[in-house]
Write a structure and sequence with these properties.
This protein is α+β, with helices and mostly antiparallel strands. It has 2 domains: 4-118, D-amino Acid Aminotransferase, Chain A, domain 1 (2-Layer Sandwich), CATH 3.30.470; 124-294, D-amino Acid Aminotransferase, Chain A, domain 2 (Alpha-Beta Barrel), CATH 3.20.10. Helix content is 29%, strand content 27%. The protein has helices spanning 24-28, 46-59, 68-81, 124-129, 152-163, 208-219, 231-235, 267-281, 291-294, and strands at residues 4-7, 10-13, 31-39, 42-43, 87-94, 111-118, 131-137, 168-173, 177-181, 185-189, 195-197, 224-225, 229-230, 239-244, 248-255, 258-259. β3 and β4 (42-43) form a beta hairpin. α6 (208-219) packs across α8 (267-281). The longest helix is centred in the C-terminal third of the chain and has 15 residues, at 267-281. It starts with a strand and ends with a helix. The structure holds N-(5'-phosphopyridoxyl)-D-alanine. Residues 35, 154, 180, 183-185, 205, 207-210, 243-246 line the site of N-(5'-phosphopyridoxyl)-D-alanine (PDD).
């Protein structure tokens, strides 16, 4: 079945979907995006994703092209037309198309794109055993809280990880402060057993998974401190984790050649995986350590 995309008011086969060649998303990366899950036919943390999208648009002074309710309806219609129940949905809104000029056009209509594909679960082996990461300098701009389609530094960092055979790149500013990863947020469980992650600031994207995981940690009685950690603290950590909409709660067991903790996913990671699994999937499968294995294949 041909995949169907929503583009500016129309549902079209993805192979025929197109935007104007002078779209500002294309020429200036002048746009924002979201990636969200739809689980069992319902948006997972949809409100948080759409609220972040609204903040990203406002930050770039792109007028919201429609209400959140209307956009949510388009998301669900795109999922339906692709005959999916569990989906990963991509939403992109650019400032629109206009003759090329850096300053905002006087009148432009935002370009809205929504695509949906079958939700892929994280690799079960990686999810059960943990992954290795590399460290890369964080060379991004100072508005990382905006989910902008301007992702070249993230692309380069992720490519460096790929070439090193690693899952992700932890990014550092000022030499040794870990901010986040190329496309996920990161955490340690420090020597005192405290779950640490960089505070919300223009230096990181406030992940929806991050916000959920921090609430789940608090509910689990896990001490949380939104305080940056350094590379040295990462290497000495008991546990390390990264989170995102598509990686869920992924254990990190190696940074470069350095093994974290005992080299296996630790107890805090396991509890957060189970809690996140319950949060997203409810009673679909047991909330156990083998979370990814327990997930129905979708
Ligand atoms: N990435 N930090 C960055 C830089 C990200 O790009 C992402 C998400 C996150 C985690 O955010 P969330 O928990 O809301 O997914 C953190 C998405 C999934 C992507 O670009 O594909």
């Amino acid at each position: 079945m041909a995949r169907i995309a929503y583009v500016n008011g129309r549902y079209v086969p993805q192979s025929q979907a197109a935007v104007h060649i002078e779209d500002r998303g294309n020429q200036f990366a002048d746009g924002v995006y979201e990636v969200m899950k739809v689980v069992d036919g319902r948006p997972s943390d949809g409100d948080r994703h759409l609220a972040r999208l609204a903040r990203s648009l406002a930050s770039l002074r792109i007028e919201a092209p429609m209400s959140e309710a209307a956009l949510q309806q388009i998301v669900m219609e795109t999922v339906r037309r692709n005959r999916l129940r569990d989906a990963t949905v991509y939403i992109q809104i650019s400032r629109g198309s206009a003759p090329r000029d850096h300053a905002f056009p006087k009148a432009s209509v935002p370009t809205v794109i929504v695509t949906a594909k079958r939700m892929k679960r994280p690799d079960p082996k990686a999810y059960a055993e943990g992954v290795g990461v590399v460290v890369q300098p964080d060379i991004r701009w100072l508005k990382c809280e905006v989910k902008s389609v301007s992702l070249l530094p993230n692309v380069l960092a992720r490519q460096a990880a790929r070439e090193a055979g690693a899952y992700e790149a932890f990014l550092t500013r000022d030499g040794d402060v870990v901010t986040e990863c190329s496309a996920s947020n990161c955490y340690i469980v420090d020597a005192e057993g405290v779950l640490r992650t960089h505070p919300l600031s223009p230096l990181i994207l406030g992940g929806v998974t991050r916000s959920v995981v921090l609430e789940l940690a608090a509910a689990e009685g896990i001490p949380v401190d939104e305080r940056p950690f350094t590379l040295a603290e990462l290497e000495d950590a008991r546990e390390a984790i990264l989170t995102s909409t598509s990686s869920w709660v992924m254990p990190v067991v190696r940074v470069g050649d350095q093994v974290i903790g005992d080299g296996t996913p630790g107890p805090v990671t396991r509890r957060l995986q189970a809690a996140y699994h319950r949060h997203v999937f409810g009673n679909r499968g047991p909330a156990v350590a083998t979370v990814a294995d327990a997930m129905p294949v979708v």
